[in-house]
Amino acid sequence: MTLPPERRRYPRYRVRLPLRLQLVAGKAVPEVARLLTKDISKAGLCFSAQQCVEKGQSVQVEVTLVGRGPGRKDVRISGVGYIVRAEAERRAGWYQLAAAFDEPPPGHGPSWNQLAAAFDEPPSRKKPQSG
């Protein structure tokens, strides 16, 4: 049996990163449970939440790359986009949401595209110091 050809524009990276759903349709969302990404790409992400968000609704999320910044500080990357898929999960009261993001204007800080690019290449390794 052969699989159908991949129709997605960008590869998906299965990675579980802390996620905070900040806004839905311009309204603040109370943080009620720890959320994690299921997968990300250069164009968006998939995650589970205890809130059903209708397809087409605007969302703002913040994803954290733990210890990946200078001095091993966390890097937080926000994205503003819209829901492209919302499905009930087997867990009662939980929904699987997929969101697509547009790139922010240059100089806006770390972008969504940079987040996915972090998974394109293996992390650089420090060269051993001689001496």
Annotation keywords:
131 residues; mainly beta; Thrombin, subunit H; 6-stranded antiparallel beta barrel; 40% strand; globular; disordered C terminus
Give a structural overview.
This protein has one helix at 112-117; strands at 13-14, 18-24, 27-28, 35-40, 44-49, 58-65, 75-88, 95-101. The protein has 131 residues and is mainly beta. The chain has one domain (13-117): predicted glycosyltransferase like domains (Thrombin, subunit H), CATH 2.40.10. A hairpin with a 6-residue loop joins strand 7 (75-88) and strand 8. The radius of gyration is 16 Å and the shape is globular. Mean pLDDT is 81; it is low at 125-131.
Binned, the helix content reads: under 10%
What separation lies between the terminal Cα atoms?
A: 57 Å
CATH superfamily: predicted glycosyltransferase like domains
Count of individual beta strands: 8
CATH-derived architecture = Beta Barrel
Number of helices: 1
Main structural class:
mainly beta
Side-by-side strand order of the widest sheet: 2-4-5-8-7-6
> How many domains, in number, for the residues?
1
Name of the level-1 CATH class:
Mainly Beta
Characterize the overall form.
Answer: globular
At the third CATH level, what is the topology name?
Thrombin, subunit H
Main sheet attributes: strand count, strand direction, barrel closure: 6 strands, antiparallel, barrel
Alpha-carbon Rg, integer: 16 Å
Write the element-wise H/E pattern from the N-terminal end onward. EEEEEEEEH
For the residues shown, what is the average pLDDT? 81
The unreliable regions are 125-131
